[in-house]
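ok posting inputs for the zinc ion job
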Amino acid sequence: MPDDTAVPDLYRLAFMPGCFRCPKCGFQLSKVCINPNLDLIGTREEDRQSEPCPNDGTMLVHVTYKEQLEVYADRLKEEFERFDTYQTAVKEFLGEVLAVARNSSLSNEARIEKICEALRVEILPRDSIKQIIDREQQEAGK
Ligand SMILES: [Zn+2]
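and the output
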């Protein structure tokens, strides 16, 4: 059985300072100190001591860098997947709106109506949209 005290520096390096997780409920606690007067950012020795979980009283365990990085990596993957989903949806939506806007067989009123329908909300009062389109057409015709 390895002796934890034989290589204390290695064990200290494996753990995120002041970062604990409850093995029972997953509660996570970060104890970090920021004190500009003392020029101190990080953890103090007392911040590196475990304490009971506030939810269930189980002693919190140190979080290793590897565990925390795996959590961050999983979160990052989730965010990239969400981003891809939203990006695809926005591209499809804009494609539909542009197709309507460029459809010259429709009257301006019909285009405004369809775009507002696609938006499912009225971003601007329809009269304002009509004024903007009319103004742009007048300026384009100059
Ligand atoms: Zn707990």
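notes: Strands lie at 15-21, 28-30, 33-35, 40-42, 61-64. The chain has a mean pLDDT of 83.
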